[in-house]
Amino acid sequence: MVVLGLVTTKRGDLESKDALKRRIEEASKYVDADQLCLSPQCGFSSTVDGNALTYDQQVAKLRLIVETAHEVWG
Hints:
This protein is an alpha+beta fold. The chain is 41% helix and 15% strand.
């Protein structure tokens, strides 16, 4: 399995679902798509003080990951 950490946990702005799909498609040129996973790049608290994201921003990023994965892999 190859985990693609394409969603940043450092900033609150939401990535484009289309951009994520394009990057997954690009990765599938090198690894079978069934062996790919989508995730945040790291945890939401990667420093002792955490990252400057609100709870709602964190939820939105996780929702984006789930929705994108569902659309790509079913």
